[in-house]
Structures are given as structure tokens and as C-alpha cells.
Design the sequence.
């Protein structure tokens, strides 16, 4: 009796309607994200029985993974590449976001944001491929330089880390511009006048007022760029030409080419753990900038 | 007060925003150590004028001088002025003491000396012990005090206040008015206040410039401004003023003879006739407290006119009566102090109103 009324009260509560609203999404996330992830984690603790998975608990996959110099080298390269991509992207994105927020008139801002989202009109794959056309042996840059007579033979610009960084930085720039722009927009302009009123030059005001207040946006941009790029599969494959694999390529090779699912899973979980650790460390370093703007 | 040196001087200052003429030839000077107010309705250019002092607005022509120096090529961060912003502009990422000490980075002295100065500034505005609090956790009144301390710690020659009290509730505002006056006397710095609140300007200022549409209409001390407004616009903006149509009969020997509707023939001194009317009509103005309702047995000291009570507004300490004088088709407002034992009159009561020619102002 008491239970029935409590249930009825619960079904009428605001919490219940909240749960009801999120349940389709929650169900989808549970089935499509949490379940596969749990499978991967479970696989990483199972034994490989060549073409089958033997369901016996073992830590051997992790021992083998971390003992493998190839894995360590590729993980380091992945960290380096996505670190470089993040740095490049944020350094390019900040001045653009600053320009739109501070120099573009109110009516023109939405037009600028619209222009920035235009790259999203084409698929990621095509944008990556585009760089192959630009950087390739007979590509735009090489033929351009050739016509100008600046080179005798085409430069080799593909199949290296720099090409991967350029491609990824271009692909992720809008993701970095938008959060920084939002953070800059939230800054009360009288704060900048106050900085100058209190004796600081424009540059020092930027350093002491604008930048600290823009940091929540910068932190968001860093995470948005860093986390997906470290696991990027397409760009190292197409632009790197398979010569400079990153961790996603390694996982793919272990999982499919060698059909060692437990080993592939162990690498995936290890890489995820590293990304989580790096991101948390970054958040910790910047925690004093977060959550100050009301 | 009058023989103090000039601190700020505006010489024919014009400011255009595109086609919009925001400041139309401002010429005025603000004396060292005075509490000066720029008063006017929104859009009159008072904030723009203040910002030309701070260096946040360039002027289109003319000159702004501070302490005898031309400010044309002096950026905001090198001017001897500090500002309390309307929004207070407290840095949300810093603590109270970091906010107050923000401008001390380039100042001489050891960190310990600077910390002591911050402590003193906080004590001066009544925020002792608040130094380590996060700035975004402060109330409106506390933010205002932090903004004051942050500006005054740099010992500016001029403190600029842009509607600093408008965000506070009435009680807090009145308290801060008194505190600001005391603070100004204590530090002796020139204060320039921008406000749209005429009462606030009257209470706080040594002198007030009343601005309309980019021009200063009158610059005077509060009493002159209240008693002898130089135009109907100023008279209507500051306090309540009654107007009655009038005509000039003649002028002679420093006196003006008038015929005023409801009051009859009046003889005033020429000094009372300096007011301008914008539309060319001649009228006479007087404040509600210069009229007195006569009770039975009382007689007027000077002149009296019969009328009928049209409306009664009771305020506790005061009562406002709208009285229709005989022979006039409009009411005049009269304020009476509610002295003990004196009854509040009912609507429709026949009454006599005492007045004096010396309290009239002629607008023509």
C-alpha cells in the first residue's frame, strides 16, 4: 500500500519526467557506447586463442602491450602529434576568435561564425584527402613551385608527422575557435577599460585580464582537439601513408590484421587511460581559471 | 572654494559618432578638490563627457586639459584619473585584495608595503578583513566599495564615478551617498560624478552641470540650480516647479512688472528674470515649498490668493496639495510639513494660499 503510493508519487514527480525525457538517449548511449566499451575492457583481460577469444582472466595482454617497444614508440608519437596539433590549432584559433569577438561589429559576427563552419559542409574524409592533393608529389604546392621555377624536383611533403599535424590542425580549427570565441564574448568589456584605467597598457591588460578570463574557452578547446586527435585513424592512414602509424592504426592492425582481439583491446584501454590521465592533469593545472565567471 | 585652481578644463569639446553630434561644444572647468556632478537624462552626453576625461573616448574637436596638461595624445593608462564603473568592473578571476592591488604592479615599494596599502584602502571603504574573498562572491554594495578602494589606492588627481549608485537599493544608495561625501572630504581628491538622479546630485555635489542633448544648460551650485534655474528645462528636471502663464508689463530700475495668471500684478527684481523659455511663452515658476496654505486665523506675511484643494497626497511627514487658484485653469502643487495638531485638508476645501514675490522665477 505504502509502496504503491510512493511509486505513484514518484511517477508524478519532476525527477520522473526528467528520467523519462533522457531515457531514449540514455538507452542509446548504454547500448551503443557503454556496452561496446565494457566488451573492450572485458576482452582486454581475456586470453587470445587464435581466431577465438578464450574467456579466462589474464593480465598478460597488458604486460605484453607495455613491454612492446613498438607500442611505446607509437603511443609517444601519438601524444606528440596530438600535442602539436592541439598547440597549433589553439594558437591559430585564438587570434581568429579574438578578432571576431573584439573587432567584428555585432551584426557581422554571426556571418563570420557562419563562414567558419563552412568546412563542415564537406565530410572529414574529403577534407583529409584534400591535403593529399595539396601536399602530394604532383600536388598544388609542388606544381606551383615548379611553374615558378623554384624547385628542380618535387618536394616530398607527405608521409610524415608534419603533414599529419597540418591536416589535423586544419580539420579541428573550428572546434577550437568556437569555445574560445564564446569565452571571449562573455568578458565584460568594462573590465578591459578598468585594466587600462588602473595603469596597464593594452598588452598587459590582455595578459592580466583577457587571457585569464578566456582560459575556460582555451581549456575546452584543448580538450576538444586533443582527445579525438590522439585516436585519429584516417589522417595517419591517408596523409601518413601508413609510414607513421598512430595508436588507432596499431589497434586496427592488432584487432583485424592479426585478429588478436584481447591484445587490441588492451592497447585501446591503455591509450584511453593515458588520454584520461593527460586530460585530468591538464584540467588540474588550469583549475584556478575554471568556474570564476558567473 | 571659488578661488581653488582649475583641475579639469573643457574647451569647446565636440564629439561626433558618425552623423550623431553627441557633445556640442562643451566649455567648462572643474576645480581642484570639488565634488562635481554631470546631471542629465539618459542620452544627454554626460557619460561620454566623463569618458573623455578618462581617455576612453576621443574627442572630435576642442581640448580636454587635466591639471594644466593637454590630454589629446595621453592614453587612458597614463592619465591621472581613475574610474568607478557603472558595472563596477570587478575582475571576477581575482580576490578582493588582488582587485584592489591591481594597479600597484608598477608602483614603487616592496610586496609587504603594497599589501599594507591594500589593507589600508580596504579599511578606508569599510571592507577590512575581506581581502581573501573571491570577488564574484560579493554583494552589490561590497563590489562598489572594492571598486572605490581599487581606484583611490592609486591616489589619482581625479576620481570619476559613472552612475555608481544606480544599481543599489534606496536605503543602500542613501547610505553610500553620505559615505562618498565623507570619503571625498577625507581624501580631498576631485570627484566627478555622472548621475541621472537630480536628488543625488543635489545632495552630494559642490557644483552641478545640467546637460541636455550634448550641451551644458546650467552650471551652478545646488542651491542656485534649485532656486534660480536658468531655463524651464532645468527647472522641470530638478525637483518640482509650478508654472503659471505671465506677461511682462514693464521694466524699470532693476525691477520687472508682471501680470501673472491667478496671482495678479507682481513686481520682481531683474535678477529673478534670467530664466529662458524654449518655446517663447512667458511664464513664472515657483517651488511647492515657497507656497503656504493658510489656516483659519493665519494671515500672509506678503501676498495671498484664494483657491480650492483639488488633490491631496499624504507622505507622512509631508502632504502635497494640488490647489486650483481662482481664475486659473491649472493646479499648483504646494508642499506642507505635517506639524502636530494641523489637520490634513479634504479635497474641495476652500483655502487661501500665501506666497512671496521673491520666490518667483521668470522664464521668457
Sequence:
Amino acid at each position: 500500500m505504502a509502496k504503491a503510493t510512493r511509486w505513484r508519487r514518484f511517477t508524478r514527480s519532476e525527477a520522473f519526467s526528467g528520467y523519462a525525457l533522457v531515457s531514449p538517449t540514455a538507452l542509446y548511449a548504454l547500448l551503443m557506447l557503454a556496452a561496446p566499451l565494457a566488451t573492450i575492457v572485458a576482452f582486454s583481460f581475456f586470453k587470445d586463442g587464435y581466431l577465438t577469444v578464450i574467456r579466462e582472466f589474464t593480465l598478460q595482454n597488458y604486460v605484453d602491450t607495455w613491454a612492446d617497444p613498438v607500442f611505446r614508440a607509437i603511443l609517444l608519437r601519438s601524444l606528440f602529434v596530438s600535442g602539436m596539433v592541439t598547440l597549433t590549432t589553439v594558437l591559430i584559433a585564438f587570434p581568429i576568435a579574438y578578432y571576431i569577438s573584439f573587432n567584428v561589429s555585432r551584426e557581422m559576427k554571426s556571418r563570420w561564425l557562419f563562414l567558419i563552419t563552412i568546412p563542415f559542409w564537406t565530410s572529414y574524409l574529403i577534407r583529409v584527402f584534400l591535403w593529399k592533393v595539396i601536399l602530394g608529389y604532383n600536388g598544388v604546392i609542388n606544381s606551383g613551385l615548379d611553374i615558378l621555377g623554384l624547385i628542380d624536383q618535387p618536394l616530398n611533403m607527405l608521409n610524415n608527422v608534419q603533414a599529419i599535424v597540418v591536416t589535423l590542425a586544419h580539420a579541428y580549427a573550428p572546434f577550437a575557435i568556437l569555445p574560445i570565441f564564446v569565452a571571449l564574448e562573455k568578458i565584460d568589456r568594462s573590465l578591459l577599460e578598468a585594466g587600462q584605467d588602473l595603469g596597464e597598457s593594452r598588452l598587459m591588460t590582455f595578459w592580466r585580464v583577457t587571457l585569464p578570463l578566456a582560459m575556460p574557452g582555451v581549456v575546452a578547446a584543448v580538450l576538444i582537439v586533443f582527445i579525438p586527435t590522439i585516436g585519429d585513424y584516417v589522417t595517419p592512414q591517408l596523409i601518413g601513408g601508413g609510414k607513421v602509424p598512430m595508436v588507432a592504426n596499431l589497434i586496427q592492425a592488432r584487432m583485424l590484421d592479426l585478429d588478436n582481439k584481447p591484445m587490441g583491446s588492451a592497447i585501446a584501454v591503455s591509450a584511453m587511460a593515458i588520454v584520461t590521465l593527460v586530460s585530468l592533469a591538464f584540467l588540474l593545472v588550469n583549475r584556478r581559471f575554471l568556474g570564476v565567471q558567473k | 572654494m571659488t578661488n581653488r585652481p582649475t583641475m579639469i578644463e573643457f574647451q569647446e569639446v565636440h564629439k561626433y559618432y558618425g552623423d550623431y553630434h553627441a557633445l556640442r561644444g562643451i566649455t567648462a572647468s572643474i576645480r581642484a578638490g570639488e565634488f562635481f556632478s554631470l546631471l542629465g537624462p539618459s542620452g544627454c552626453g554626460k557619460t561620454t563627457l566623463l569618458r573623455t576625461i578618462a581617455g576612453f573616448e576621443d574627442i572630435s574637436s576642442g581640448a580636454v586639459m587635466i591639471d594644466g596638461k593637454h590630454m589629446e595624445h595621453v592614453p587612458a593608462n597614463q592619465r591621472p584619473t581613475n574610474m568607478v564603473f557603472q558595472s563596477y568592473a570587478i575582475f571576477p578571476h581575482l580576490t578582493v585584495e588582488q582587485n584592489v592591488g591591481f594597479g600597484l604592479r608598477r608602483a614603487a615599494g616592496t610586496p609587504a608595503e603594497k599589501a599594507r596599502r591594500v589593507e589600508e584602502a580596504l579599511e578606508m571603504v569599510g571592507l577590512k578583513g575581506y581581502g581573501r574573498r573571491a570577488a564574484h562572491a560579493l554583494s552589490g554594495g561590497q563590489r562598489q566599495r572594492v571598486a572605490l578602494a581599487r581606484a583611490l589606492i592609486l591616489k589619482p588627481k581625479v576620481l570619476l564615478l559613472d552612475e555608481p549608485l544606480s544599481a543599489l537599493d534606496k536605503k543602500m544608495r542613501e547610505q553610500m551617498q553620505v559615505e562618498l561625501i565623507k570619503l571625498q572630504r577625507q581624501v580631498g581628491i576631485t570627484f566627478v560624478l555622472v548621475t541621472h538622479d537630480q536628488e543625488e546630485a543635489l545632495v552630494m555635489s559642490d557644483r552641478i552641470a545640467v546637460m541636455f542633448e550634448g550641451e551644458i544648460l546650467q552650471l551652478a551650485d545646488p542651491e542656485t540650480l534649485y532656486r534660480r534655474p536658468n531655463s524651464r528645462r532645468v527647472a522641470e528636471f530638478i525637483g518640482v516647479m509650478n508654472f503659471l502663464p505671465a506677461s511682462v508689463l514693464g521694466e524699470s530700475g532693476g525691477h520687472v512688472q508682471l501680470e501673472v495668471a491667478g496671482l495678479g500684478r507682481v513686481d520682481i527684481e531683474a535678477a529673478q528674470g534670467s530664466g529662458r523659455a524654449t518655446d517663447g511663452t512667458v511664464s513664472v515658476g515657483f517651488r511647492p515649498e515657497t507656497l503656504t496654505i493658510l489656516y483659519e486665523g493665519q494671515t500672509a506675511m506678503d501676498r495671498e490668493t484664494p483657491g480650492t484643494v483639488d488633490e491631496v497626497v499624504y507622505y507622512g511627514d509631508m502632504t502635497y496639495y494640488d490647489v486650483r487658484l481662482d481664475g486659473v485653469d491649472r493646479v499648483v502643487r504646494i508642499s506642507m510639513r505635517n506639524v502636530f495638531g494641523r489637520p490634513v485638508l479634504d479635497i474641495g476645501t476652500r483655502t487661501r494660499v500665501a506666497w512671496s514675490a521673491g520666490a518667483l522665477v521668470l522664464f521668457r
In short: Chain B has two domains: 6-227, 240-364. Chain B touches chain A through 26 residues (CB under 8 Å).
